[in-house]
Specification:
Layout lengths: L15 H12 L6 H30 L5 H11 L11
Length: about 90
C-alpha cells in the first residue's frame, strides 16, 4: 500500500478456493497480505478495463464509428453476454 493513500474498508465475497490460494501466497511470502493482494488485483483489473476501452475506441475510429445494434448483438452472442449494463433482459 502506498503511504498516505486514502483507503476505505469494504466487505467482499470471494470463492473459498480463491481465498485459500491467496492465503497460500501470503503464507509463502509472495503477497504481503490478503488485502494487499486484492488491492493489487483491483488495480490491474481497472487498468485492463481502461486499456481494452481505449483499444476498442481506436478500433471503432478506424472502422467507421460506433457499433450498430446488429454488430453489438453479434458480439454479445460471441462473448456470452446475456444483458448489458444499464439494460434489462427483455
Amino acid at each position: 500500500m502506498v503511504t498516505g493513500m486514502a483507503t476505505r474498508k469494504v466487505t467482499i465475497t470471494l470463492d473459498q478456493a480463491q481465498l485459500a490460494r491467496i492465503q497460500a501466497l501470503v503464507q509463502a511470502g509472495s503477497a504481503a497480505s490478503v488485502s494487499g493482494f486484492v488491492q493489487h488485483a483491483v488495480s490491474v483489473a481497472l487498468d485492463d478495463v481502461a486499456g481494452w476501452g481505449a483499444m476498442l475506441a481506436e478500433a471503432l475510429r478506424e472502422t467507421g464509428g460506433p457499433m450498430t445494434d446488429d454488430e453489438r448483438a453479434w458480439a454479445d452472442g460471441i462473448l456470452g453476454v446475456t444483458t448489458r449494463p444499464g439494460k434489462s433482459a427483455a
